[in-house]
Design a protein that fits this description.
Layout lengths: L1 H23 L7 H19 L5 H21 L6 H34 L3
Keywords: Signal
């Protein structure tokens, strides 16, 4: 009986001692998700340019923005990304992707207007 009274609090104290340092350290993220998003967005920009949905100048602008995000990703991810850094990069990528989608939709509407007169 006495052994169980001492063993339970001792086990609890040991468990807390082991988890406290891990909880105190900030969470770090690897950049594999960010890198794959950059690669995918680069492919989407190239594809939109090949299909003449965006102009060469627009594609260059998108690539410039994407290269800045890629450079920032390399700088920040040397020691792993914090949650805020991962959010920052993700927000930048989402902003670029949103602009690309908006340009693609605009181009599609313009195409529909041109082809609707031919009927």
């Amino acid at each position: 009986m006495r052994k169980s009274l001492f063993a339970a609090p001792l086990a609890l104290a040991a468990a807390l001692a082991l988890t406290t340092p891990a909880m105190a350290a900030p969470a770090r993220y690897n950049d594999s998700g960010i890198t794959s998003q950059i690669t995918q967005l680069d492919w989407q920009i190239n594809r939109a340019e090949q299909r003449r949905i965006i102009s060469n100048r627009e594609a260059q602008s998108y690539h410039r923005e994407l290269n800045q995000v890629q450079k920032l990703n390399r700088q920040l991810s040397r020691n792993g990304l914090s949650g805020n850094e991962a959010k920052l990069l993700d927000n930048k990528l989402q902003r670029i992707k949103g602009k690309l989608i908006k340009d693609q939709r605009y181009a599609m509407r313009q195409h529909e207007k041109r082809t609707s007169y031919r009927r």
